[in-house]
Amino acid sequence: MNKPQILVVEDDTAVGNLIATTLETQNYQYHRAKTGAGAVLDALSYRPDVMLLDLGLPDMDGVDIIKKVRSWSNLPIIVVSARSEDGDKVAALDAGADDYLTKPFSVDELLARLRVALRRVRFDSEKTSQASSVYENGGLRIDYAGGCAYRDGEEIHLTPIEYKLLCLLAKNTGKVLTHNYILNEVWGSPSASDTPSLRVFMATLRKKLEADPSHPQYIQTHIGVGYRMLRQSQEHLEE
What we know:
12 strands, 239 residues, Arc Repressor Mutant, subunit A, disordered C terminus, Rossmann fold
């Protein structure tokens, strides 16, 4: 099996060295870029499996890099940044980032987030090759063609909105979806005033989907940011 290829975009030498050493210990191959222009060029030529991206680069803001890459690629992008405000996270995730890790970070958490991204790459590849109309994740099964969802073999009776929410999360398993993104995709409106309605629908969906809604296994909340569908083999990571 080919080794995963990781593009590390970081202008701080010490942090870049830490990440590089961490990747080496896990037998990942990597390439380093220190500028936004270099990152975009390497993403085109190097064809990495995952990009680890710092937002504060000398020539270009990381959010602009995400937008450029997203114009032609679904490459998983994990932001690794010292910017810790919810607004920064939302901006990066809305632009198309898959995950957001705040500096200072633990090596174990970085590797866990990376494994999640690589599992998504493999899952997407298998899904494309199989052209499957059925989604399976632990005890959850969605029959897209039939418009039905099942938990442990029993049908879950969902409203149209709940079903749309579930399908959107399922099709982006492992990726944090912001409130605005979900509102736009499901309701066609990214208005902040609709966020309370989204929370209500997510709560009712959880009650139907989760064995214990107070300790969800499938839908993870990222407070102030959005939601993520967890693949059942992955660790439950908190922001």
